[in-house]
Write a structure and sequence with these properties.
heterodimer; A: mainly alpha; B: alpha/beta; Rossmann fold; four-stranded antiparallel beta sheet; about 40% helix
Chain lengths: ~475, ~250
């Protein structure tokens, strides 16, 4: 019986002129989001490739120079593009694209695309993920609003019941039709998106990208299934199409538009962003850790003299100035980590506040998972900046050690040449695989599944109750 | 299950809504191949009786049986043996007549061919050209015919009709009446609620007069003409309004 209802509903929906209009809108929006995304990512890829070439050329062609001067000159670490940024750019536009790996200082990532965008760019983030998270539920609600209310309004529900259809069979049929249509359209759209994402990525496609695509498909499938179940339940609460649609429109505004925005605003209100100048001064103070502690400087100097069995720094087999530079680097590390972990704690607190709102709407959780699986969330950005910092430390250490072991202590200016510069490998960041990063998303996956279970229970109970009520009101 | 051979049977069937008695100890049996028409004013208990047979309502007392199955205990099994035609048959307007009957055929667990279903629509009197037209373009009479075709497709043991002729033009009502008679002749038990004494006399084998939830008279249509039935009915109406039925009948 349920399969007969599924087939009948699909036939009816296919003949709805509204459905044709909705499909046209979906295709139009999808094409627009793909065009915008491809333009954005291509510009990013080109600019990044050009910047990387320039950075390397400048490094290699800097001529003869003191290694510590080269450490100040240094290089940039560029964030690799995620092939799935075309689907969900996540925080990409707001997080820095590159880290300057200079001596003495752990710089934050710079070059945020949002800074280059116009005023409107903040309001027109037409990305496939935005469509799936915000526009798709509205389309599902439009499609499903009449699913049960329409049967009640037209009197066909009574005909079905008289034909021996039970409330549970009716629910299964309605849910099956809604899911089948939604998933068919979504799967087609997602295949197109995936093809574009994989074909337009400049780097070779790795297995992880495929795993992440499957992950995104699952997340959006679950999210849309929740929307279908909610639409079905709300439709069953009303006796007319119009009332059901108005109620679902209200649900959409609240769940897909207002609450996600409110969650972010409340998160930043309770745990405000630290002042950029304040963070900058904390980082500066961290870089001065060694130089401001005269006692420690004295102690380290004495330890070094004792270690080498000499009385003065001039007698040391290493360049003492270079040694101090390296020591200052190493002593600054925990201070930088303290400042950055404080920032991370603040962002985590904001996320935790937002998570409470996830109990009111699945859109927040789905958005978080989408960013995470696409590799464009804060955690992936953190992995990049951490890798860049480790690369910086190694790079500065190598430069300082070259200075330390080759310059001597005879006050003759020491310079290194391109032979040394060529020893430095380019920064190559390998983002964590989804398998490795998955642990951070387990809570959100469970929350989304709980939403699905709750939505199905809600829909089933409301539909069965509506059927019972229809029977009783005979 | 009971051992009864009646397709439809009510045993002391009662339904109350709060303090209002909608149906009071109805005893009625409709064997296969017979049409029983329930005649009565609004609120007399006709639709309540039909809804109790459909299992849409639970009886307060007594029981309704369809093909020996107690409806309250196994409503879905009972409904599988029933066909139901309301005052206005609700069809899916975006589907054609043929698609509508095919859908209800599938619900009944059958998969007839389009030709077979078309044959049923023809038998119900729906013009061939309308089979492939969406039912949103149908008149009420055409929808009722599709309803009858659906009932025929279900091969139901019993047919419940709730004011099926109301609002139809005389020609449409006449052809629908003929269809009901054909179903009866094919062995279907029919219980029809109606206000129309003359159609009830024409179609029914027996006419049950209902007043305020009670079956006050069960008349054999063979033995009486329409005029006599009307007299009896009016007499009961008069009694219900406080008069003496014998006096009114005279």
């Amino acid at each position: 019986m349920s399969s007969a209802i599924v087939k009948k509903d699909l036939l009816v929906l296919r003949r709805e002129s509204l459905m044709k209009a909705l499909l046209a809108v979906i295709l139009l929006l999808l094409a627009a989001s793909l065009a915008a995304g491809m333009q954005r990512e291509q510009v990013f890829d080109k600019e990044k490739a050009a910047a990387e070439l320039t950075d390397k050329a400048v490094w290699m062609n800097q001529g003869d120079r003191n290694p510590h001067s080269a450490a100040h000159f240094s290089r940039y670490a560029f964030r690799p593009a995620s092939p799935l940024a075309l689907i969900d750019p996540g925080t990409s536009d707001f997080a820095g694209l590159a880290v300057w790996m200079e001596a003495h200082y752990q710089d934050p990532a710079v070059f945020r695309r949002a800074e280059d965008g116009g005023e409107l760019s903040r309001y027109t983030q037409l990305t496939p993920a935005f469509l799936l998270l915000t526009a798709a539920p509205l389309l599902v609600f439009l499609m499903m609003s009449a699913s049960i209310a329409g049967e009640r309004e037209d009197g066909t529900l009574r005909q079905l019941l008289a034909a021996g259809v039970s409330g549970k069979q009716f629910f299964r049929g309605k849910l099956g039709a809604g899911l089948r249509l939604t998933m068919t359209v979504f799967t087609l759209a997602f295949l197109i998106l995936s093809a574009f994402a994989l074909l337009t990525t400049p780097a070779a496609v790795e297995a992880d990208a495929i795993v992440r695509l499957i992950g995104l498909f699952v997340v959006f499938s679950v999210y849309l299934a929740i929307c279908v179940a909610v639409a079905l339940g709300v439709s069953a609460l009303f006796r007319t199409r119009q009332a059901a649609f108005l109620a679902l429109a209200g649900v959409w505004v609240l769940a897909a538009v207002l609450l996600p925005r409110l969650a972010a605003d409340v998160g930043t209100s309770i745990h405000p962003q630290p002042d950029a100048r304040e963070v900058s001064s904390q980082l500066r103070a961290a870089s001065y850790t060694f130089y401001e502690d005269k006692e420690r400087q004295e102690r380290i100097e004495q330890d070094l003299l004792r270690e080498h069995g000499v009385a003065t720094v001039e007698e040391l087999p290493v360049n003492y100035a270079a040694f101090r530079l390296q020591i200052s680097e190493e002593l600054s590390i925990p201070e930088f980590e303290r400042v950055y972990s404080g920032l991370e704690d603040r962002y985590s607190a904001q996320d935790n506040t937002a998570r409470w709102f996830s109990l009111l709407t699945p859109a927040i959780t789905a958005a978080k998972l989408s960013r995470g699986i696409a590799g464009t969330d804060r955690a992936h950005q953190h992995a990049f900046t951490t890798a860049a910092e480790l690369h910086r430390r190694d790079m500065i250490k190598l430069l300082n050690e070259d200075y330390m072991f080759n310059a001597g202590n005879d006050d003759v200016p020491y310079t290194a040449d391109a032979t040394l510069w060529a020893q430095f490998e380019d920064f190559e960041h390998q983002p964590p695989t989804l398998g490795a990063a998955f642990g951070a998303y387990v809570k959100d996956v469970l929350l989304l599944l709980a939403w699905l279970a709750a939505a199905l229970v809600f829909a089933r109970s409301v539909v069965v109750r509506a059927v019972r009520h229809e029977v009783r009101s005979a | 299950m009971t051992s009864t051979s009646n397709a439809l049977e009510a045993k002391a069937l009662s339904k109350t809504f709060g303090k209002t008695v909608a149906l009071d100890k109805l005893d009625l049996a409709v064997p296969a191949g017979e049409v029983v028409c329930l005649l009565g004013a609004n609120g007399a208990g006709k639709t309540t009786t039909i809804n109790l047979f459909l299992g849409f309502l639970e009886p307060s007392n007594g029981a309704a049986f369809v093909d020996g199955i107690e409806v309250a205990k196994a409503p879905f099994d009972a409904r599988k043996r029933l066909a139901y035609l309301p005052e206005s048959v609700a069809l899916y307007p975006k589907l054609t007549g043929l698609e509508n009957i095919a859908f209800f055929d599938k619900l009944a667990g059958r998969e007839r061919s389009a030709a077979e279903l078309s044959g049923l629509l023809n038998a119900a009197g729906l013009p061939e050209e309308a089979h492939h037209r969406r039912t949103s373009t149908y008149s009420k009479g055409m929808r009722q015919k599709v309803g009858i075709a659906i009932a025929m497709a279900r091969e139901a043991r019993a047919l419940l009709l709730d004011e099926p002729l109301s609002g139809l033009d005389p020609s449409a009502a006449n052809s629908l009446g003929e269809l009901i008679c054909r179903l009866r002749d094919d062995g279907c038990a029919v219980l029809m609620a109606t206000h129309d004494i003359f159609r009830a006399k024409e179609i029914g084998n027996r006419i049950g007069i209902m007043m305020q939830g009670r079956l006050v008279n069960l008349l054999d249509t063979e033995a009486l003409d329409a005029r006599e039935i009307e007299q009896i009915y009016l007499a009961h109406l008069h009694e219900a309004n406080g008069g003496d039925p014998a006096e009114r009948a005279a």
